[in-house]
């Protein structure tokens, strides 16, 4: 069993969709399922209404497959610690995604582990920084 | 010394001339108002927000035939009109995704919401709605203070603004395509009562919606924001060049 398939099966029961806030519906993606992928960055499209991260992932047969991963708006990403220069082509990354229901190589980014080990989320609500007053 | 004196006299004459020509400093209608100014973040979607300061859900609504048809048109994974400016209802949605900033001007109040390119202008200078308003994305808003409460009346919307996703209505975010979108039309009248709550750390907006083209009855909801001086309202331009949502989601590597 491939590691991707193991993750897909194991993670399916554990994912919460609480952070699945979007400018639009994410109904095209299976928010109850997570897939972990390792690959190289092709492009970070820093744009609105949503940014996209394109990565190239080995397909296990000597070839590769390009995945399109949707992330937040540029403002959301800025608040989550991203910059437009955070990822560059050929950077090696590990991503966790909610995959497309159609089976296409696309999804909603849940998290990305950067080459320096930092982990960033997809951007979303800027939550309360501290316990709010009663 | 003489030069300085002459320069001062010239400036004084220039300033007095401005006054006489009608360029005197305008009054500051918000000078004595409660401190609603600054950056706020909606509590809708923030799990740490106290329950008493979370948006009240929209009541069970009955659409008119037009409203039902419009809601159905909008209920798709890729929200139609996503890149258009927001109407006033969505502008005040109190989503925790984007902060808004409230600033006072010489004519009243400006509310800037990060997710929408247009500032919302609330005229506080005593004017009334014009009899023959030209419809606009955010409509025409006039306001006044009733004690500590800011009362705003808005009409004159074009009904073409970006619609509310179901989740903004207080319904939880839906993982399906079936959560109803909540449109408002060009017949919208929105009356708001805005006040500080929670020791000034929260802002409450009691919104009464009358939209006979869309809904069979008037309804009222309350939306809340948390004071967030640590945040900036950032630039957001919804770029149609970056569409391709459906293509990417269904086919993957399309570009």
Secondary-structure map with pairings?
The complex is a heterodimer of chains A (134) and B (255).
Chain A: H1 3-12, E1 35-45, E2 52-58, E3 64-70, H2 74-79, E4 92-99, E5 106-113, E6 119-120
Chain B: H1 2-20, E1 38-42, H2 65-74, H3 88-91, E2 99-104, E3 108-113, E4 120-123, E5 140-146, E6 149-155, E7 189-197, E8 202-210, E9 219-227, H4 245-251
Which superfamily, in CATH terms, is the homologous superfamily of chain A? Nucleic acid-binding proteins
What is the CATH first-level class name of chain A? Mainly Beta
How many domains make up the coordinates of chain B? 1
Structural class of the helix and strand makeup of chain A?
A: mainly beta
Structural notes for this entry:
The complex is a heterodimer of chains A (134) and B (255). Helices cover 12% and strands 32% of the residues of chain A. By secondary structure, chain A is mainly beta. Chain A has one domain (3-16, 27-118): OB fold (Dihydrolipoamide Acetyltransferase, E2P), CATH 2.40.50.140. In chain A, strand 4 and strand 5 (106-113) form a beta hairpin. Residues 1-22 of chain A have low confidence and may be disordered. In chain B, strands 1-2-3-4-5-6-7-8-9 form a nine-stranded mixed barrel. At the A-B interface, strand 3 and helix 2 of A face helix 4 of B.
In short:
The complex is a heterodimer of chains A (134) and B (255). By secondary structure, chain A is mainly beta.
Q: What would the keywords be for this entry?
A:
heterodimer, A: 134 residues, mainly beta, OB fold (Dihydrolipoamide Acetyltransferase, E2P), five-stranded mixed β-barrel, 2 helices, 6 strands, 12% helix, B: 255 residues, alpha+beta, Lipocalin, nine-stranded mixed β-barrel, 4 helices, 9 strands, 24% strand, disordered C terminus
């Amino acid at each position: 069993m491939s590691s991707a398939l193991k993750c897909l099966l194991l993670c399916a029961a554990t994912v919460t969709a609480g952070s699945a806030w979007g400018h639009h519906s994410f109904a095209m993606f299976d928010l109850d399922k997570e897939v972990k992928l390792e690959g190289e960055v092709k492009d970070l499209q820093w744009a609105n209404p949503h940014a996209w991260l394109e990565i190239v992932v080995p397909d296990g047969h000597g070839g590769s497959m390009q995945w399109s991963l949707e992330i937040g708006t540029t403002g959301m990403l800025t608040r989550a610690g991203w910059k437009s220069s955070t990822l560059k082509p050929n950077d090696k990354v590990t991503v966790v995604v909610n995959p497309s229901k159609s089976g296409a190589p696309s999804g909603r980014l849940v998290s990305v582990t950067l080459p320096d080990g930092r982990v960033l989320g997809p951007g979303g609500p800027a939550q309360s920084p501290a316990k709010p007053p009663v | 010394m003489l030069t300085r004196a002459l320069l001062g006299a010239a400036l004084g004459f220039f300033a007095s001339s401005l006054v006489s020509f009608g360029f005197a400093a305008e009054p500051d209608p918000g000078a004595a108002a409660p401190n609603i100014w600054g950056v706020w973040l909606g509590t809708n979607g923030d799990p740490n927000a106290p329950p008493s300061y979370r948006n009240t859900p929209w009541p069970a609504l009955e659409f008119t035939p037009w409203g039902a048809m419009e809601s159905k048109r909008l209920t798709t994974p890729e929200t139609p009109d996503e890149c258009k400016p927001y109407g006033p209802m969505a502008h005040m949605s109190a989503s925790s995704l984007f902060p808004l900033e409230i600033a006072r001007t010489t004519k009243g109040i400006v509310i800037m919401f990060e997710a929408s390119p247009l500032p919302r202008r609330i005229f506080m200078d005593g004017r009334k709605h014009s009899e023959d308003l030209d419809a606009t994305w955010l409509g025409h808003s006039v306001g006044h203070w009733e004690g500590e409460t800011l009362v705003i009346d808005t009409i004159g919307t074009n009904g073409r603004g970006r619609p509310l996703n179901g989740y903004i209505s207080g319904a939880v975010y839906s993982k399906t395509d079936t959560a109803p979108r909540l449109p408002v039309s060009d017949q919208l009248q929105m009356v708001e009562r805005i006040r500080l709550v929670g020791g000034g750390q929260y802002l409450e907006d009691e919104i009464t919606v009358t939209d006979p083209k869309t809904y069979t009855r008037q309804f009222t909801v309350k939306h809340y924001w948390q004071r967030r001086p640590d945040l900036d309202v950032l630039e957001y331009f919804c770029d149609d060049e970056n569409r391709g949502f459906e293509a990417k989601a269904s086919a993957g590597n399309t570009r």
